[in-house]
Design brief:
Blueprint (H helix, E strand, L loop, with lengths): L1 E4 L8 H16 L12 H5 L3 H18 L6 H10 L3 E6 L14 H11 L6 E4 L5 H6 L4 E4 L2 H8 L3 E5 L12 E4 L2 H8 L1
Parallel strand pairs: 1-2, 1-4, 2-3, 4-5, 5-6
Helix pairs in contact: 3-5, 4-8
């Protein structure tokens, strides 16, 4: 089976990162912390301007993409899946937006080193723009593990999606969508 795996929100807990580091950013900048639960975008979640959002990512994105740890058991489960003959396709929308000027042009290098450091095995790494559906279809993905509400809806129109549960995607339901809460549950569903 060809299994597509997103990075942000699936391999990492970006929801927790944004709350923790977004709150820190607010304190540092003297911005009142008013978190609007259930929003996918940090601007909407914190009520930030585009400039504040860019400053937040300029401050913390490099740390996030190079040092922030994976979810518990992700590497172990991916290793087991590959040992059982499944192919792992990392399918990510990571791009250069939000990197501080000194790091622009290094995102792919950061991602590849982070995957290596975190011992995430894969057969192919795919960088996307826009909807991930065409990348899933074009690579014959059998099931995609995703957290982004729009991607879940798009991909599920053609391919089964394991929706990694986050507050911002809790209302997403539909045909070809199955909710998961942990990497061990993912393993159980795929075995």
């Amino acid at each position: 089976m060809k299994i597509g795996v997103d990075i942000d929100g699936v391999l990492t807990d970006i929801e927790r990162f944004v709350v923790d580091y977004g709150s820190k950013f607010c304190v540092e900048k003297g911005i009142p912390i008013k978190i609007k639960e259930g929003e996918y975008d940090e601007k909407d979640s914190f009520g930030w301007s585009e400039e504040q959002s860019l400053e937040f990512w300029n401050t913390y994105l490099e740390y996030y993409v190079t040092k922030y740890k994976t979810r518990e058991f992700a590497a172990e489960i991916i290793h087991k899946l590959r040992q059982e003959g499944h192919e792992i396709y990392i399918i990510t929308a990571r791009n250069e937006w939000g990197l501080p000027p000194k790091s622009v042009g290094k995102m792919r290098q950061f991602v590849e080193k982070w995957l290596e450091d975190e011992k995430i095995e894969y057969d192919r790494l795919i960088y996307t723009e826009g909807s991930k559906l065409k990348y899933c279809v074009g690579n014959y993905i059998d099931v995609m593990i995703e957290d982004c509400p729009q991607n879940i809806i798009d991909i599920s129109s053609k391919i089964k999606v394991l929706c990694y549960h986050c507050i911002y995607n809790h209302k997403v339901k539909g045909k070809n969508i199955e909710r998961v809460y942990s990497w061990n549950e993912i393993y159980q569903k795929l075995s």
